[in-house]
Amino acid sequence: MTGTTTIKNGPNHVAVIMDGNGRWAQSRGKPRLFGHHAGAKRVKEIVRACPDHDVKYLTIFAFSTENWKRTQTEVSGLMKLFRRYIASEARDLLAEGVRVRFIGDRVKLDAKLCRLMDEIELLTSGNDRVHLTIALNYGGRDELGRATKRLAREVSAGRIDPETVDETTLARFLDTCFLPDPDLVIRTSGEARISNFLLWQAAYSEYEFVNTLWPDFSAAEFATVLTSYGKRERRFGAVPA
Ligand code: IPE
Ligand code: IPE
Ligand code: MG
C-alpha cells in the first residue's frame, strides 16, 4: 500500500507480537524456519506502511527470553536470520528514514550479531521518519529485573535518594527509556496473551488479537487494525466528558 490513507485518531506507537510463523510453515509441510523467513519479509512491508498512517514508532517482538527453550536448530536458524536480516536490510532502512534500535538483554547474543546491532543503530541514528525497535532476547520481567538492578546500584552508590524513587525513576532504567508507551499492541495468530512483552509499557495500551498468522499479515490488514483502533475510546481511568 502506498500513499497516505488518513486514519482518524490513529496510534503513534504500535507494538507487534509477530506470532504464527511456525504454524504457517507447518501447514505447508515446511520446516519452521521457512515460516520465520516468510515472517521477516512481512516486517519490511509493515515498516514501510507506517509513515503512510502516521505511525511514528513500531516495536516488534522478534525473540523472547523464553524462546531459548526451542530446539537448537530453530534457535540457531533464527540467530542466523537476524544477522542476515540486519546485514541485508541496513541500506534500505537507512534510505527509508528508519531509525533502528534494539531492546532486550544482549548478554546471551553472539558477538557477531551484537556488532551488527550496534552498527545498524549507529548507521540509522540520524533518522527520524519511523522508529523501529526490535525486541531481541527480550522479556518484560527480565527487563524489569535488569532495570531494578541498575537502579539499586545507583541508590547504593548514593547517586539516587531511595525516597525519591517512583515510577518515572524506574522507567528511566528500562530498555525502552527512549520510547513513548505503545498505544496499540497487535498479536497475530489467534493467541490472546502477551507472552512477557512490554509488561510495564503496555499497562494502558489497547490490544488487537487477530487470527492471521504473521507471514500472512498484510499492509492492508495492518491498516484495518489501525482504523479500528481509531474508533476506540481510551479513558485511562477517567470518566469520559
Ligand atoms: C513467532 O512465531 C516467531 C518467534 C517466536 C520467533 P512462532 O515461531 O511462535 O510460530 P508458532 O506460534 O509456533 O506458529
Ligand atoms: C511470543 O511468541 C514471542 C515472539 C513473537 C517473539 P511465542 O510463540 O514465543 O509465545 P507463546 O510461547 O505462544 O506464549
Ligand atoms: Mg508462537
Q: Looking at CATH, which topology would you report?
A: Undecaprenyl pyrophosphate synthetase
Strand order of the largest sheet: 3-4-2-1-5-6
pLDDT average, as an integer?
97
Give the helix proportion (percent range). 40-55%
Q: How many structural domains are formed by the residues?
A: 1
Fraction in beta strands: 5-15%
Could you tell me how far the N terminus lies from the C terminus, measured between alpha carbons in angstroms? Answer: 36 Å
CATH homology superfamily:
Decaprenyl diphosphate synthase-like
In total, the number of strands is: 6
Low-confidence stretches: none
Give me the Rg, rounded.
Answer: 18 Å
Structural shape: globular
Query: How do the SSEs run, as a string of H and E?
Result: EHHEHEHEHHEEH
CATH class: Alpha Beta
Structure ligands: 3-methylbut-3-enyl trihydrogen diphosphate, magnesium ion
CATH A-level architecture: 3-Layer(aba) Sandwich
